Amino acid sequence: MAEFINPTLVPKRKLATGEEIPCIGMGTFGSDRFTPEQVSNAVAGAIRCGYRMFDCAAIYCNEDLIGEVFAAALQEGVVKREELFITSKVWNDMHGKGDVLLSCAKTLRDLKLDYIDAFFVHWPFPNHHAPGCDGDSRNPNSTPFSVDAFMATWRQMEHLHDMGLARHIGMSSMTIPKLEAVLPLCRIKPSLIEMELHPCFQQQALFDYVVAHHIMPIGFCPIGSPTRPDRDMTPDDIADITLPEVVAIAKAHGVHPAVICLKWAVQRGQIPIPFSIHENEYVSNLRCTMVDPLTDAEMKTLKTVERNCRLIKGQVFLWPSATDWHDLWDENGVIVK
Ligand SMILES: NC(=O)c1ccc[n+]([C@@H]2O[C@H](COP(=O)([O-])OP(=O)(O)OC[C@H]3O[C@@H](n4cnc5c(N)ncnc54)[C@H](OP(=O)(O)O)[C@@H]3O)[C@@H](O)[C@H]2O)c1
């Protein structure tokens, strides 16, 4: 029997509404490496270990199996629905009129839920790529970001919230210029925003912007995604868990460097959503939020390991006239079209 961590003792984060949610969740993207069965088995184990937040998405192609796990846990009385915070995301090929509603309905059916706690626009581009495609794959119909198109999608997200199907709505992989353009137009503001966050990719300006707008930052790839899909691996990428500073701090605490990345994330203020199918790993990931915090000096050291190393570059979403993946991220402060 795995270690049980009392979820009421796991630190909480407060959303703008005042609602409290766990300071850490579990990711469920199998990264084209782990099967839906492996991922859903890990979710089953994680609920029983005390995880209460799970980050799902339609494109992870495992929501049906994860739904069975949720249904069994609820049925067996392992957890009550209101104790869980379950998120999902509409994929890029479902941004069109009526499609967001269809996508949410399918996710609810697959996850076997009446409502989702937070529903995200997965990417701000309506560009589909097939699961498992390689890094050079391009869709000739891809288009750059458009405020009008994004807001048409967001209106449907607001509608889902109005109908009570999504308790919160959120965005993902946004930039400050895109947020500047769309936030003033939102009738219902995003409660949460997912962004890539790990020690060597801290996105300090975006993080500060989001927090200043009372939006909760959710950090994906919090360990530097060592098992990410091959298409997202490039020779210049830096592995957070091999950085000498991270390794030295891990030694001092007697833990794996992955755990140091998570402690840093929680103490900085984002909600990390680490993935693992291994029980010893997901248990230590949850436990580390409650014990043996990093010192101020260690937090300061970790601030210095920033390398601006974006791992999920998104090149498969590029449109025909785009130069390269940098165009997706508005690095000069204006939306690239
Ligand atoms: N919104 C978005 O667009 C977006 C994009 C990417 C990801 N996400 C979400 O973020 C989640 C997390 O990102 P990710 O899965 O890419 O990367 P990650 O959580 O940074 O890394 C996951 C890998 O780290 C290793 N690991 C985990 N815990 C460990 C521990 N305690 N000790 C040693 N190694 C450990 C595992 O590798 P081994 O199996 O080798 O041990 C695992 O496969 C995803 O699952 C998904 O839910 C969202």
What do these coordinates show?
- With 337 residues, this protein is an alpha/beta fold.
- It has ten helices and ten strands.
- The protein has an eight-stranded parallel β-sheet.
- Strand 4 (53-55), helix 2 (63-75) and strand 5 (85-90) form a beta-alpha-beta unit.
- Helix 7 (244-253) crosses helix 8 (257-268).
- The mean pLDDT is 96.
Annotate the secondary structure layout.
Blueprint: E1 12-14, E2 20-22, E3 26-27, H1 36-49, E4 53-55, H2 63-75, E5 85-90, H3 99-111, E6 116-121, H4 147-162, E7 166-172, H5 176-182, E8 192-196, H6 204-212, E9 216-220, H7 244-253, H8 257-268, E10 271-272, H9 279-287, H10 296-303
Helix pairs in contact: 1-2, 2-3, 7-8
The protein binds NADP nicotinamide-adenine-dinucleotide phosphate (NAP).
NADP nicotinamide-adenine-dinucleotide phosphate binds at residues 27-29, 31, 55, 122, 172-173, 194, 220-228, 256, 258-259, 273-276, 278, 281, 284-285, 312.
Describe the structure using short key phrases.
337 residues; alpha/beta; TIM Barrel; eight-stranded parallel beta sheet; 10 strands; binds NADP nicotinamide-adenine-dinucleotide phosphate
Q: How do the strands line up in the largest sheet? A: 3-4-5-6-7-8-9-10
The residue fraction in helices comes out at 25-40%
- Attached small molecules: NADP nicotinamide-adenine-dinucleotide phosphate
The CATH top-level class label: Alpha Beta
Compose a concise summary of this entry.
The protein has 337 residues and is α/β, with parallel strands linked by helices. It has helices spanning 36-49, 63-75, 99-111, 147-162, 176-182, 204-212, 244-253, 257-268, 279-287, 296-303; strands spanning 12-14, 20-22, 26-27, 53-55, 85-90, 116-121, 166-172, 192-196, 216-220, 271-272. The strands form 2 sheets. Strands 3-4-5-6-7-8-9-10 form an 8-stranded parallel beta sheet. Strands 1-2 form a two-stranded antiparallel sheet.
